[in-house]
Design a protein that fits this description.
Blueprint (H helix, E strand, L loop, with lengths): L2 H8 L3 H9 L7 E2 L6 E2 L4 H13 L4 H7 L4 H52 L4 H4 L3 H21 L4 E2 L5 H4 L4 H4 L7 E8 L18 E9 L1 H4 L2 H15 L5 E9 L6 E7 L3
Parallel strand pairs: 3-6, 5-6
Antiparallel strand pairs: 1-2, 4-7, 5-7
Helix pairs in contact: 5-7, 5-11, 7-11
Length: about 270
C-alpha cells in the first residue's frame, strides 16, 4: 500500500512515516525508483504501534531499534524499567523542590556575609594615596558594591566578580583558575612592574572594550595586601565607572608579591 494508505491505517501523518524512514526505524518495503513513492506492507502497522508507544514513553531512537525485534514480554519489561527510572527521577525532583527554599535562604545568608566583609574592609580603607580619588568618589564606589550584592541576592548574575586572593586563600584552589597568566584562553594586553601606586598608571589601561571579559592580576607588596579586599573592589569600581554603559565582565585577583615589588597584568579572554 502507498504511504498515504498506510498512514490512514496507522492513524498518523505521512510526514511521521517519512521521519521514521529517515532515522531507520520503519523503512518502506519498496521505493519506486522512478517516482520515489514509498510502499508498505500491512503487517508493518504492528511495528508502527511499537515505535509510536515506545517513543511516547521516552525511549530513545537507539533504544527503540533494539526493542523492535523483541517479543511483547521483553517490551513490557522495558516499560517497567522506564517507569521505575521515571519514578526515581520524579522523587529526585520532589526532593529538590523541598530543599530549594532552604538553599535559597542559605545562599542569601552567605551573600550577606560576604557583603559585610567586603564593605567593612572598604570602609576601613583609605584609597586616596593609592588611587587618587576623593572621599565622595570612594563613597560612590562603596555604594556600587552594595548595589551589586543586592542585585545578586536574587538572581546571582556573574557580570562582575568581586574577589581577592592571598597565598592562604590559594591553598586548594584549582591551578587553572588561579594561573591565568598561563591560561591559553587569556592574553596579556597590558602589564606594569615596579610601580608605587595604581594612580600612576591607571590611565594607561582603564579604557576597556565593550563586551570583552577582562581579568586583573595584582601581585603587590604585603603592606598593600593588608586590605586586599578593599584594594580589589576599589579598582573594579573605578573601572566600571570609567566604562559606564559598556557590557563588561571583570575579575580582580590580588596576592602578595614574592620579590617585594608591585606587579600588574591586565588580561582579556581571547575571541572564539
Amino acid at each position: 500500500m502507498t504511504i498515504k494508505e498506510f498512514s490512514r491505517l496507522c492513524g498518523c501523518n505521512p510526514q511521521t512515516l517519512r521521519y521514521y524512514d529517515h532515522v531507520d526505524l520503519l523503512k518502506p518495503v519498496k521505493v519506486d525508483s522512478w517516482t520515489g513513492y514509498r510502499y508498505y506492507d500491512e503487517d508493518q502497522a504492528i511495528d508502527f504501534v511499537k515505535i509510536k508507544n515506545l517513543q511516547k514513553a521516552g525511549f530513545t531512537i537507539e533504544e527503540i531499534k533494539e526493542l523492535l525485534d523483541q517479543d511483547n514480554h521483553v517490551i513490557y519489561k522495558a516499560f517497567s524499567a522506564k517507569i521505575a527510572e521515571t519514578e526515581h527521577r520524579l522523587q529526585e525532583i520532589k526532593d529538590i523542590q523541598k530543599s530549594y527554599q532552604t538553599e535559597m535562604i542559605q545562599i542569601q545568608e552567605k551573600i550577606n556575609e560576604v557583603k559585610e566583609k567586603v564593605v567593612q574592609s572598604m570602609q576601613q580603607y583609605d584609597p586616596k594615596e593609592e588611587f587618587g580619588i576623593s572621599a565622595d568618589q570612594y563613597t560612590a564606589v562603596i555604594d556600587d558594591v552594595n548595589g551589586f550584592f543586592e542585585s545578586i541576592a536574587g538572581s546571582l548574575p556573574k557580570e562582575i566578580s568581586y574577589s581577592e586572593f592571598s597565598d592562604k586563600d590559594a591553598e586548594g584552589e584549582e591551578t587553572e583558575y588561579l594561573d591565568l597568566l598561563n591560561n591559553p584562553e587569556f592574553t596579556v594586553v597590558y602589564e606594569k612592574h615596579g610601580w608605587e601606586h595604581v594612580k600612576d598608571f591607571f590611565d594607561e589601561f582603564c579604557e576597556l572594550e565593550d563586551g570583552i571579559e577582562y581579568a586583573l592580576i595584582f601581585r603587590v607588596d604585603h603592606t598593600k595586601g593588608v586590605y586586599n579586599v578593599a584594594f580589589g573592589n576599589t579598582i573594579l569600581g573605578i573601572l566600571l565607572a570609567r566604562n559606564e554603559g559598556k557590557k563588561r565582565s571583570l575579575s580582580c585577583n590580588t596576592e602578595d608579591s614574592k620579590d617585594g615589588q608591585n606587579h600588574f597584568w591586565l588580561l582579556r579572554r581571547k575571541d572564539n
